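Researcher: Re-running this chain for the archive, since the previous output was lost when a drive failed. Same request as before.
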Amino acid sequence: MSSLPNHMRFALPKNMAKSGCALTLAGAMLLPLSPAFAAPATPIAAQAVEQGEVQGAQRLQVTSGTFDILKGGNVMVSGSGFSKDFVKGKSFRLYVVPKGESVAFSPHRPRDYPFYVQDVPASAFAADGTVNLTASIGANYLEANGSSFDVVLGYRDDAEDGWIPADEVRTELKVADVPTVDSPTLSYSASSVNASENAKVTVNGAGFQNISYNGSESLIVAVRAVDPATGKATGPALAQSEAKFTSYSAFFGQYMGYTNGRFSTVLDIPAGTLKSGSSYVVQTFEFNVPEDNDEANNQALSTQAFVPVNGENAKTASPSVSLSTDKVDLSSSTTIRVKGKDFKVPAGATVNVLFSEAEADGNPTGEALDSITLSADRVATGAFETTVNVDGTKLDADGHYAIFVTVNYADGDSERIAADYLTLTGESANKKARERFADVPAAHANHKAVLWAADQKLIDSREKDWFGVNDDATRGELTVALYRMAGSPKVTLPATSPYPDVKTDDPNYTAYIWARQKGITFGWSDGKFHANASVSNATVAAFLYRFDGKKPVVATEAPYTDVKVGSAFYREITWAKQQKLQVFPGSEYHPSALVSRGELAGFLMNYKVR
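Model: Regenerated structure tokens:
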């Protein structure tokens, strides 16, 4: 297979966004091209020909009939006249393009429609000059254009540099009409839901072609209860799913809508979530569901009745945890009895009782000070009792500690049942000075933040006793810190790095891919990540804003005297000020000023303790 040069001006979005497209040749599956790969400009201006028309001695014909864009499927193409002499010394590619569309175009022309394109090896052509190709195109992969498409077999001499087709053979691919849906409409894979059983309901959306892009790359699909008195949706989201955008803009470098205005997502509804006989609606939102009912209903992009809920309502008590005491003496040891009741732990799952330092938001941090794991057999009756031994002399008088009880399921999911904070009493017998780093004395402006970031293991020190507090922070360090702050979640890693300057064996590869998948950063415009590049105050605000979920920002005036309304990163910096993240005093933000490692620690600490 020939190498494919990277031309950033080309948009082959859905070859990346959807994995449902591939080419089958003689029983072998060839992966589709990434969206950054396409052919540069060519003088070809050949027009589409009628089905099966002879072009020179070569001929193509679609044999699979009319193609249904919404359902997807296989497009089978047969060809003849490709003799051994004709094939020799040439490279071939198969394209599916709008009817009459060239397979190449002038440089710097933004494209809003993707090619289906795939290399065709010489081995695909039989000795008698015939060729049979099957292009597998996923459901809702092609953007309907009100006309048919062309299947094009382009070719060039192997001696040519790059991939500019010298000539082509094309034939018509007829497609079924795609029904027009003018306003947002939802349909469901189930006709009803049993309140006492777990349910997975596929929600299919149509008519979402005119949604306004607002910086997110998805919509939230949520189930909410209906107030029988008003007939309006009320309360929080009882179940929700993220419907990621599928229409990619190479010009803007991100997803900005849905192909054909349609999406599909799955709502996972645990047993007991919904009540039999009650009414529910499914609503779509640009961001998370607002807590205020009126605000939520006003912001909903669409509201549609959900399927009926029947069956018996689950009669189960919620699991609970109690401690024999929540007080710990810093000068001695304390034994705490932990009791749980009304637990339902399936086979293969475990209950974990963890004692560790804790953050203010109810999450453990640092190393486990004590951890007990109970198998499902130990909790078969729904109740358990265990003990946690706390050595108060090893605790930090200024720290926060809690006992966490979590159910860990066999499939990798987990459920936090309780997080009970402990009250520290007395005075620590080994109260120690915390001058850990020679370059961070107690009088340093970021002393507290540096020690916090080091304790949380968010930023690595340069050496054991040297933090590098005044060194410039880098994009790599900022990304890794956010990944760790998120709990270092498991990430599905691509076999090939999307960044030419980051190898797959890079120790921070997982963090960089996580940030890309979360929409925090896609690297620079040159396609590289630039892990060692310094970061500015504006960049830190932007990363944290995206990490926080890109929540709406309301501002009527400039947040700082050096940040104008509507300027670059104005929204992110406004959000940062509202969250009180600034680590330096004054009325100026200094957006382009570089951030030191000590200041980065301050930004992160201010974010966590706000």
